[in-house]
């Protein structure tokens, strides 16, 4: 990371200091629409491709890939959508404003018709997909595991030799240094993208308040698979409540949802519970029955918020996840050896990165991400299993491809509105380092990470503003939800009511600003004004706290 980029990060982070400075920057940005990048001249070159896939230069087969994509996509329109989803959208302030005016004007209950129209189109597309693929569905059971590691920098995986298990998955699979530049780098919006196949702007999200109606419009991968074939066993194991909530939302939720609240006052211990539950789920897989498991670890992200992503604690949290991944892969390998006709496909991804230095602290929490530095927008995808080349790199992958990929692995045609593509369709852009071995892969991925820059200045400032305003209602919600969660008695409802009023007083203006900054799918007035939601699924009994060691007793 060059000093120039750090300065750019400083500018972006400076937006946090106050809205005034951000508005001032907007003014500068508006006057400077000719400039495509906020960064230094060197990063400007990179940012030209920042939307921007290094692969476009490295793959001699790009043309062939496009042909394959054309064949694999159900409609030209969806191809166009997918392309748009991979590029930074805002091109000028004038376009932004005119788009905003055209959409805000209709941001009244009257637009429900057009929104429902979108929903119906989506549903119809999904149904068409189902019908189209029933005849081609394989009778061989399919097993897919997606491992989500929140807030994880690929560079942190690569740089620490202790991460043996993730590095082994990289060495034996196909890996992307991917980017989500131009999209909000917040967890709820981003995991929604990963688990629905549409970017958060389309889904209408920009902060971490769970909105159940989102998934009625944009079915999750669990909804999609369960609708396609209710016989598929879908399992979600997570230690962040939003993931359990997303898994429980929409038409047909996941079959099994296990949510682990913070245990033993340690996110690493909590991640260990997730890892063990995931191992158990793999071991309990039923032969002959297709299964889809999503395992989600929050510990790395939360540690980054507490200590920053450059800290030894962050590295330790990642190594802890790596050990859990090792145990999960041991269970997978045992299964594969016993059932060679039903091997697992394993996909690993993250929702965003984090800046590796201390930032502004609000309470105990640092704002480690949410903006558009390359640290935050660089993500990764590892695909490991039959059909994925060993030791290859494919930087055309994106985390938005996860849901279409899982769809395709189960024989379901992804909905036509999907922003991503099945990774299998991108195989033409695989490339391998000249030298064999992990070190060469590591170097090639590091080179790819270094190519990523900022979005253009208008997009950068717009997304910073979106994140800052979106944080306010989320903060209000968090305070009142925390205050009333364990409360009983006559005061609970009045306090919740005051919280709901304050939340909507900040949320509705934030929704308007989000629309102005390119969030096309949000509802300015939420269909449900009561923001409090429950967490579905089971909350397994945590093990008894460890018995103190003799040394501790002696003390
Ligand atoms: Zn986070």
From TrEMBL:
GO MF: hydrolase activity
Biased amino acid composition, Low complexity: 32-52, 75-89
Key word Lipid biosynthesis present: no
InterPro entries: Alkaline_phosphatase_core_sf, Phosphodiest/P_Trfase
Region (Disordered): 32-89
Key words of the record: Signal
Signal peptide range: 1-26
Name this polypeptide is given: Phosphodiesterase
Organism: Mycolicibacterium sphagni
